[in-house]
Amino acid sequence: MTQVAGEPARRRDQAGQPGPAGQLGRSALIALCVAAAYALGSGCAWLLFHASAVGAVFFPPAGVTLGALVLTRRRHWPWILGAVGLTEFGINLWQGLGPLTALGFALTNVVEPLVGAAGLRWLRPGRIDLTRYRDAAAFLLYPVGIGPLVGAVIGATTSAVGTGGAWWPALGRFWAGDGLAVLTLGAALVGLDAVRSRVRPWQLVRGGTALAGTAALTVIGFWPREVPLSYLPVPVLLAVGFRGRVATIGAAGFVMAFVANLLSAAGHGPWSVLAGQPRLEAASLQIYLAVVVLGAWALAIAVAERDRAQAESRREVAARQRLQALQDVTAGLATAATSDQVIRVLVDRGVGLVADHGAVALTDQAGSSIRSWPTAALAEQVVGGFATFPLDGSDQLPVVDVIRTGRPVQLPTLAALDARYPVLADAHARTGTRSLLAVPVKVGDRCLGALAFAFRRDDAITPEVVSIARTIAELAGQAVDRAALYESEHAAAHQLQRALLPQISPDLPGVTAAVCYRPAEHGRDVGGDWYDVFELPGNRVGIAVGDVVGHGLSSAITMGRLQQSLRSVAQTGASPVEVLEALDTACQTIDGADFATVGYAEYSPTDRVLTYACAGHLPPLLVAGGVSRYLTDARSLPLRLTAQPRTQAQIAVPDSAMLVWYSDGLVERRNQVIDAGLDRLGRAAAGLSGTEPQVWCDRLLDAMTDGQVITDDTVVACVHLDGLPTGTDGSPVLRLTLTSPADLSAARRALRDWSAGNDLTPDQVDALLATCNEALINSLEHAYHGRPDGPVALQVMLLDRQQVRVEVTDRGHWRGHSHDGSDRGRGLDLINRMARRLVLDLSNAGTRVTITLPGQ
Q1: In the chain, is it the N or the C terminus that has fewer CB atoms within a 10 Å radius of its CB?
Q2: Measuring CA to CA, how many Å separate 402 from each of 153, 342, 352, 748?
Q3: DSSP H or E run through 540
Q4: Does residue 777 have a pLDDT over 80?
Q5: Helices within 223-350 (DSSP H only)
């Protein structure tokens, strides 16, 4: 039982709480200090203010006792009151009073502060702030009013019984003298307790100056008898009142009262005219001094209330601003789709909302390193060394500790900050950081990073700051996780889109081509921009650029199907206008293809002719000799929107020309008409030189984006339109025009000469002569039946690996096979058996037969 009973006491001692012996010693020490102060004040009243002559004067011990009771716990009160009673009783006996009278005055000075302190604590049990109306009213009611009144009743009674003096005058003198002491010295002690935690040295200097000034002006004001200068100290008290410091007012009032009573007792000052009535002199002086102090005190309360109202208004405004800013952060994070956008919101609007400066730190996907993004208030040279650092490194950094443990780090002072993270001491000195809060950015149990909030003052981390920081961190965790998921899906969608787009062959006849495809910046959906550059029968090249309406994976799939459909139709030998008409029909079976835009061109390098048509797409740009021009003919509405026949246009291509075709993402900008973008592209292209299409693509893309955020997928295709040699004998290309069957023999001779000049084998020569003969006869006989003979064009060219390509073109319309039982009309079957590939292109403009003969 003994051990159990003693255990709580030991726990209190171990926790730093004083045990019974310690409490007893502290109470005794407090009582001793109060007794010493009381004796000093009482001695002043008796010796300096001649209390024995008037019976009651300004009595400083009353303020000492009241202040001691208010500032200490109730368990110390018996010790304080006992010490006061014994001290008062001893001094009274020393002054020659009888034991009963001495005991009565001792009782007076024990009951008076007890009533005042008990009443004050009953009304205001917490810390007393004398700049608040309720606390000031309670202080004036009990310690200044009721307490001294009770003491005055006991003191006046003791005086009347012990000395035979009048009771009512004694009551007034006791009440005025003790009340003034409590009003000044007591208020100074209680008020100083209210501000002791935030007093700065310069404030002590200013307060000491005010007290010295009060003493000096009181001496000047209360020295002459004839000249009324007693008002001189009043401005000092009013000036202190404007500062809202009741403790300083009480202390200055005490100094004024002390000096005024001292000089008046010595026969100086305006109250010396009442020297014949010392009791009236003392009482009226105390009343005057009390009025002065109360006036300054009332002013201080008004100023303090005004300051509190302004501070509360500022806090409310700041709270509204923080709430609005927090809503702004929430909205920003809700719309931020990518990690970069999330980080920008957190850096610019999140950390800056709470702190003077700070940083956002996030781990990489592997969780092995940390990257940080500082606010703009931090100098680059300070944060450069902490831009990226390993998570498992030896450096002790706040964000590293937070990410490792998942718990916040809160360091309210510079001393605590430097003690825990000495590696950052130099950075703290350069940035002025004095306190820091770092909170984890988490999603569930996963810690994705940390937010660091730094302040340039100590103890800046309030509960409100911690609450807002944690709220931002929670929002940040959700946003970062959402952005990572979006970026993963976005990358997969773009990868699929790029897989659907074709690879440009480096061996296209008569052209070199390059295409730059740049997807929209993160935060945008996958677009439907596409392109194609491919070889066509007859040594021609097809060039296509298109854009599907909408965004997302479905648009990417639609653009892939359109691109395949266009290439399939073009390979049949269809002209550009026929290709677009075929796509109009294909749109009926391709979901999402309606209203798509397509530009398609066919280039013949042997003829150096470009044939093109646009279905709602932006016009191609042709650049030659430093001059750029848009090809604006043959334009029609997007796919499936036109009811009119589509058209195509043809242009002769000058030497060393570059064709630039693009999607709208290259030239469209928000808040800018598209014509401005087209003009910029034209100027940029005209300023380029050279024949490397890839260089053109890169430079045009850089010039048109210029560091701006790309909000749509962008395609730019550059095709250098070169030609193929068109010589006769001994050149890779042979061209002839026949108008009748009589020209066939001359054509055969030209073919033999061309074959000899190009080292064809005998078998190749026989195949060439046979296929050309059949193709020419078919065109001459079938194309213009019933009409005058028209021209038939023959073109023969040598391809790679000694392959030979033959094109026979006419402007007529072939008739079907003969039904007379003869072998006429069977020439195509013979050609097909001898050729590697045969393409028959029938159109309203005529017929083209393309034959590719095998090489050696």
Answers
A1: N
A2: 67, 20, 20, 89
A3: strand 540-547
A4: yes
A5: 234-243, 246-265, 278-335, 339-345
Beta bridge partners of 209: none
pLDDT score, position 49:
62
Contact (Cβ atoms closer than 8 angstroms) between residue 342 and residue 335:
no
Contact (Cβ atoms closer than 8 angstroms) between residue 810 and residue 736 = no
Nearest alpha carbon to residue 373 among 474, 480, 294, 457? 480
Burial 417-452 (b: 16+ CB within 10 A, else e): bbeebeebeebbeebebbbbbbbbbbbeeebbbbbb
Question: What does the DSSP 8-state code read for residue 798?
Answer: E
**742-750, Cβ contacts within 8 angstroms, sequence gap of 24 or more:** 744/773, 744/776, 744/777, 744/780, 747/772, 747/776, 747/794, 748/772, 748/773
Query: Residues 791-807: pLDDT tens digits?
Result: 888 988 876 656 788 88
> How many helices (H) and strands (E) would you count in the chain?
28, 22
Measuring CA to CA, how many Å separate 19 from each of 28, 31, 43, 332? 14, 18, 36, 57
Order of strands across the sheet with 804-810?
Answer: 733-738, 792-798, 804-810, 846-853, 837-843
Q: Quick one: pLDDT at residue 69?
A: 94
Closest-CA residue to 66 (of 124, 132, 126, 121)? 121
| Long-range Cβ pairs for the range 267-272 (8 Å, 24+) | 267/225, 268/222, 268/223, 268/224, 268/225, 269/221, 269/222, 269/223, 269/224, 269/225, 269/230, 270/222, 270/225, 270/228, 270/230, 271/222, 272/225
Is the pLDDT confidence value at 245 over 70?
yes
Measured CA to CA, the distance from residue 689 to residue 720 in angstroms comes to 11
In the three-class reduction of DSSP (H, G, I as helix; E, B as strand; rest coil), residue 66 is classed as helix
pLDDT per position as a tens digit, 555-572: 778 888 898 899 988 887
Residues 6+ apart with CB under 8 A from 848: 538, 573, 807, 808, 809, 839, 840, 841
Nearest to 678 by CA among 616, 630, 733, 722: 630
Mean pLDDT to the nearest integer, 759-766: 88
Closest to 810 measured CA to CA, from 773, 780, 766, 770: 780
d(CA 279, CA 272): 12
φ/ψ region of 50 (left if φ > 0, alpha if ψ in -120 to 50, else beta) reads: left
Q: Which run of H or E residues covers position 557? A: helix 553-570
Please, are residues 555 and 512 in contact by the beta-carbon 8 Å criterion? no
Q: Which helix (H) or strand (E) holds 599?
A: strand 597-604
Task: Give CA–CA dist 217/352, Å, rounded.
Answer: 51
Give every CB contact of residue 49 below 8 A, 6+ residues apart in sequence: 57, 58, 261, 262, 265, 282
Residues with Cβ within 8 Å of 96's Cβ and at least 6 positions away in sequence, in order, are none
Total number of residues shown for the chain: 856
Q: Give the SS3 label for residue 264.
A: helix
Most distant CA pair in the chain, distance: 168
Rounded-to-integer distance, Cα 311 and Cα 533, Å: 71
Q: Which residues of 40-64 are buried (b: 16+ CB within 10 A; e: fewer)?
A: ebbebbbeebbbeebbbbbbbbbbb
**HEC sequence for 165-222:** CCHHHHHHHHHHHHHHHHHHHHHHHHHHHHHHHHCCHHHHHHHHHHHHHHHHHHHHHH
Q: How far is 440 from 447, CA to CA, in rounded Å? A: 7
Q: Are the C-beta atoms of 688 and 623 separated by less than 8 Å?
A: yes
Residue with the two structure tokens 């206008």: 577
Helix 246-265 with 278-335: angle, nearest 10 deg: 170
CA distance 449 to 401: 10
Spell out the SS3 assignment of 96-136: CCCHHHHHHHHHHHHHHHHHHHHHHHHHCCCCCCCCCHHHH
Residue 521 DSSP symbol: P
Cα–Cα distance for residue pair 825/780, rounded to 1 Å = 12
Q: Report the amino acid identity of residue 562.
A: L
CA atoms within 13 A of residue 839's CA, in its CB half-sphere: 19
User: Among 696, 698, 758, which Cα is nearest to 721's?
Assistant: 696
How far apart (Å, rounded) are the C-alpha atoms in residues 338 and 487?
6
